[in-house]
UniProtKB/TrEMBL annotation:
<keyword id="KW-0238">DNA-binding</keyword>
<dbReference type="Pfam" id="PF00126">
    <property type="entry name" value="HTH_1"/>
</dbReference>
<keyword id="KW-0804">Transcription</keyword>
<dbReference type="InterPro" id="IPR036388">
    <property type="entry name" value="WH-like_DNA-bd_sf"/>
</dbReference>
<feature type="domain" description="HTH lysR-type">
    <location>
        <begin position="3"/>
        <end position="60"/>
    </location>
</feature>
<comment type="similarity">
    <text>Belongs to the LysR transcriptional regulatory family.</text>
</comment>
<dbReference type="InterPro" id="IPR000847">
    <property type="entry name" value="LysR_HTH_N"/>
</dbReference>
<protein>
    <submittedName>
        <fullName>Malolactic fermentation system transcriptional activator</fullName>
    </submittedName>
</protein>
<dbReference type="GO" id="GO:0003700">
    <property type="term" value="F:DNA-binding transcription factor activity"/>
</dbReference>
<dbReference type="InterPro" id="IPR050950">
    <property type="entry name" value="HTH-type_LysR_regulators"/>
</dbReference>
<dbReference type="Pfam" id="PF03466">
    <property type="entry name" value="LysR_substrate"/>
</dbReference>
<dbReference type="InterPro" id="IPR005119">
    <property type="entry name" value="LysR_subst-bd"/>
</dbReference>
<keyword id="KW-0805">Transcription regulation</keyword>
<dbReference type="GO" id="GO:0005829">
    <property type="term" value="C:cytosol"/>
</dbReference>
<dbReference type="GO" id="GO:0003677">
    <property type="term" value="F:DNA binding"/>
</dbReference>
<dbReference type="InterPro" id="IPR036390">
    <property type="entry name" value="WH_DNA-bd_sf"/>
</dbReference>
Length: 295
């Protein structure tokens, strides 16, 4: 007897809805169709999957049914992801997640490349924070994503290539009393007003990690999503900031960047991630190869 995928789909919905009637309505089939599917599965696995209830009003899973429901969820999810991967592999276009602070830095460098940029016609950029984009990637909503992190990322479903790292610096006005320092300890900044990128940003996570060492004594007076605005406020000496050295060379007049002491150093990791089951198109392979040459 062969296992029928449709039977598994009927079973999984029954494990969620717990009603033969509702499952039949969900698939627009007769109730006996669902009943015969469950009987076939119970015969195949040689066990009861549901506790018997002659009324068929509400059903409960047996321990064996619970196990099969968990495995079926994994199987159906994997098949769905595979279907999406196969569909996308035949398409010229590809969707890539871009955290804003990474995109402005990388795109400015990509456009300076002398190599062919034909892949840009096929590239669709999806903007969002790294955590949001990671979720979209795992759900199959995008083909791949650039991701920022404070350490190397590992995930059983993803191929992740670290492209490069950038050090975090303290950014302040050149009129600030500490502007001439060669390096700074975070403990010497606890009384400063910090102006930071927002809570969904890796930069804010880096600030919190440093701040935890000192019982959250440092004060973030303002959180914004625009790095340019933050630099303008810091330039006017209204506060200081913690930023990775990514795009800091642009518009840096009257600002200084000072490294943290060795014990406080943090690094911004820029990664490229895609699903292990994915088949990269030629355009995306070209895009990834160019990314690997950037620093």
């Amino acid at each position: 007897m062969n296992l029928n995928l449709r039977d598994l789909e009927y079973f999984y919905q029954l494990s969620k809805l717990r009603s033969f009637t509702n499952v039949a309505k969900y698939f627009r089939v007769s109730q006996p169709t669902i009943s015969y599917a469950i009987k076939r599965l119970e015969s195949y696995y040689d066990c009861d999957l549901f506790y018997k209830d002659s009324s068929h009003q509400v059903v409960d899973l047996t321990p064996e049914g619970d196990l099969l429901a968990m495995r079926t969820n994994e199987i159906l999810s994997e098949l769905n992801h595979t279907k999406k991967a196969i569909h996308r592999s035949s398409m010229k276009d590809f969707k890539v997640g871009f955290p804003p602070i990474i995109s402005s830095y990388l795109l400015s460098k990509i456009l300076k490349e002398e190599e062919s940029l034909n892949f840009l016609n096929a590239l669709h950029m999806i903007y969002g924070g790294s955590n949001e984009l990671l979720s979209q990637l795992l759900n199959g909503e995008i083909d791949s994503s650039l991701l920022g992190s404070l350490e190397k990322i590992k995930h059983p479903e993803l191929e992740i290539e670290e492209l490069f790292q950038k050090e975090f610096f303290i950014i302040m006005s050149d009129h600030h009393p500490l502007a001439s320092k060669k390096e700074l300890a975070f403990k010497d900044l606890l009384n400063e007003d910090f102006i930071l990128l927002g809570e969904h940003n890796i930069h804010f996570t880096a600030f919190n990690l440093l701040n935890e060492k000192y019982n959250h004594s440092a004060n973030a007076v303002l959180k914004l999503d625009d790095a340019h605005t933050i630099k303008e406020l810091v330039r006017k000496n209204l506060g200081i900031s913690l930023m990775a050295d990514i795009g800091l060379s642009e518009d840096f007049k009257h600002l200084v960047k000072i490294p943290l002491i060795e014990a406080d150093k943090q690094y911004f990791h820029i990664n490229y991630a895609y699903q292990k089951i994915a088949i990269l198109s030629e355009s995306e392979k070209n895009f990834l190869e160019i990314l690997k040459t950037l620093k």
